[in-house]
Design brief:
By secondary structure, this protein is of the alpha/beta class. 50% of the residues lie in helices and 11% in strands.
């Protein structure tokens, strides 16, 4: 049993106290005339349950009452809470009084004081109601914040005020407000038990498991990184070793690959060493080529010099021969005096000219002739010297050709040697990389246990995610609403409601009741008559509370019904509550409705309490036994003699 109301208490400004006592686990009826304060009871209870605004109507009640109070019967013990009535200009008051014990005595007015505020009161009421830690997280893409169910959300299932019990658009208290409706949609899965009390605990467990799983996976990634991504890195190294001729293994498993790599790393040094070739011959040929090239340049210079000398000699010989030819003509002067007669015209020259003598010219001629003879004798020797130099040059060039051919052969051999050296270096590099890789392996722990633990955590996470998934929650909600639907269908038939021949279901997305007819679904707002609307409100809330009791869900075990007979017995027809002005058919419908409520409460006694405020005062024993107060002939919630504060 959780939270049933034992007393509704109001205090006057001068210290008087008015107590309305209720019986737990039973139907409690407060019957009376209009304007006696019956409908205000719902607002008083709501305010004492920590409402953010006092909705008690302005008038005698607000002016005459200083504190509102409730005494509860809890699962263990009792509690009393009271809230100060706000000033006329204020919406609410933060002054809250709380007392709790095995048995709680209703305090006197002078004992009331602030012991907590509305936030603290809400927390206490939530814990007394049995609501454990819970959290609804909206689906991805929606911007509203996560929401935890509190006593305020549960109370939306406990009140049916006069204007709501006949409303066809909304089934639940306050659902006309979109924010309240959305909050109810978000918290109903928890209140119904589709999301159980361990949901948040398991969410935390899932978070903890995921943290551990991430740690294990991070360790595995680090070890895998050291291994070079496991067998992939090792296989790559083994492939390089095969390509270099260091191995022929085609191992595939981790152990086989590592074993093959160890075999490569253990190869003796001679397996990869290449003897360095002797480079003396190539160096000798290179030195010889340099020497021959120097000789070639020297011979070419000497030949060039000899050719130049030969050219100069030819030029001198031509000039000297021309001069000699001129001087030979002196022979025409033999036997004459060259100083007095012109040798050309034989005329007398008169005074002797200042000219060289014939003897001098003859001397020059003799000298030139001698030199010409010397040049002619030297010319063959120059030609012979040039010929010898050219022969030597040809010999040197032949040696250079031979040297070039030998160097090409040696160079070809050297290239092969270099290739062997490069190959040896590459093989040595591969062996070094393999050795470095293998050296890191002894320090790596065995990852099999770590992998098994990671897989175990992964399986647990998947299992919890499946249990906590939206799909699983929806499946549970569908199952619950199916059970509730069957119950409502039976009750609708017994109450003779419209569409009772069709299966009924509780639509939690739209917060209404739907009849699945052959022509399609018919929601409550498309059903006609106030009698049907009241009837569907009753069967919907009673089915829910029956579920809450049977499944021990954390919802207060009471339901307030304000004037459910109003569609049959409106206030204007009320004279003494006897329903004498009501037709027989309507009277039977009212009796059937109340009898239905009594039967449901009796079936769940003492775990469910219903409080009904009514005009009707039916002359039936079972009804009269349930009447706790009758507010007529001046009796009302607030006595007329209480002082009022303006």
């Amino acid at each position: 049993m959780t939270m049933q109301i034992l007393d509704i208490v109001i205090y006057s400004h001068d210290g008087q106290r008015r107590v309305l006592s209720l019986r737990s686990g039973q139907v409690n009826i407060i019957t009376g005339a209009s304007k006696t304060g019956k409908s205000a009871l719902v607002d008083i209870v709501d305010y004492c349950f920590g409402a953010g605004e006092c909705r008690v109507p302005e008038g005698p009640i607000r002016r005459s009452v200083s504190w509102f109070g409730l005494r509860f019967k809890l699962k263990t013990g009792e509690a009393f809470v009271a809230r100060r009535c706000p000033d006329p200009t204020a919406a609410s008051s933060e002054d809250c009084f709380v007392d709790i014990g095995d048995e709680v005595v209703i305090p006197e007015h002078r004992s009331l004081r602030q012991t907590t505020n509305t936030r603290g009161l809400g927390g206490l009421l939530t814990s007394w109601g049995g609501i454990s830690d819970n959290l609804h997280e909206p689906p991805e893409g929606q911007t509203r914040p996560p929401l935890s169910a509190t006593i305020r959300h549960a109370l939306a299932l406990c009140f049916q005020p006069q204007d709501e019990i006949i409303r066809r658009q909304q089934l639940f208290h306050g659902a006309a407000d979109n924010f309240i409706a959305q909050a109810l949609k978000d918290t109903l899965p928890y209140l119904l038990g589709a999301v159980d009390d361990d949901y948040l605990k398991r969410r935390e467990e899932l978070k903890r498991l995921k943290d551990r799983l991430r740690q294990h996976e991070r360790q595995l990634r680090e070890l895998s990184s050291l291994r070079g991504d496991g067998v992939t890195k090792a296989s790559t190294l083994l492939a390089e070793a095969r390509n270099a001729g260091l191995s022929t293994s085609l191992a595939s498993t981790w152990e086989e690959v590592v074993s093959a790599l160890r075999g490569v790393a253990d190869l003796p040094g001679t397996a990869i060493d290449v003897d360095a070739p002797d480079e003396t011959e190539y160096q000798r040929l290179s030195d010889e080529r340099n020497q021959l090239q120097r000789q070639q340049r020297q011979l070419r210079d000497e030949i060039a010099a000899a050719r130049s000398f030969e050219h100069d000699e030819s030029a001198f010989s031509r000039e000297a021969s021309e001069q000699r030819a001129r001087l030979v003509s002196i022979g025409i002067f033999d036997g004459s005096d060259p100083t007095h007669t012109c040798p050309l015209c034989s005329q007398d020259l008169g005074e002797p000219a200042d000219l060289p003598e014939v003897g001098q010219l003859q001397g020059v001629l003799t000298d030139i002739t001698s030199r010409l003879d010397t040049v002619k004798r030297a010319a063959p020797q120059v030609e012979r010297a040039i010929s010898e130099l050219e022969s030597k040059l040809q010999a040197v060039q032949a040696e250079l050709s031979r040297n070039r051919a030998e160097m090409e052969v040696v160079q070809s051999t050297s290239d092969r040697v270099q290739q062997l050296r490069d190959e040896a270096t590459r093989r040595a590099l591969i062996v070094g990389r393999i050795s470095l890789y293998l050296e890191s392996l002894p320090d790596l722990p065995d990852t099999q246990a770590l992998e098994r633990e990671a897989q175990r955590l992964r399986d647990q996470c998947e299992s919890l995610e499946a249990e906590l998934s939206e799909e699983r929650v929806k499946e549970r909600i569908d199952s619950i609403t199916s059970i509730l639907g069957r119950r409502m269908s039976d009750w609708a038939w017994s109450l003779e409601l419209e569409h009772s021949a069709s299966p009924l279901r509780l639509d939690l997305k739209k917060l209404t009741i739907v009849a699945d007819t052959p022509d399609g679904p018919v929601p409550m707002d498309r059903m006609g008559s106030g009698e049907n609307w009241v009837g569907y409100h009753l069967i919907g809330h009673l089915a829910l509370h029956e579920w809450f009791v049977d499944r021990d869900r954390p919802v207060p075990r009471f339901l307030f019904l304000d004037q459910p007979s109003q569609v049959y017995f409106p206030p204007e027809k009320d004279t003494d509550g006897s329903m004498s002005t009501v037709s027989e058919n309507d009277r039977e419908a009212v009796l059937r409705m109340f009898r239905f409520v009594f039967d449901i409460v009796n079936e769940r006694a003492p775990h469910f309490q219903v409080v009904i405020t009514e005009h009707a005062d039916i002359n039936e024993d079972w009804y009269q036994d349930a009447v706790v107060e009758r507010w007529r002939q001046g009796l009302k919630l607030v006595p007329d003699d209480w002082p009022r504060v303006d």
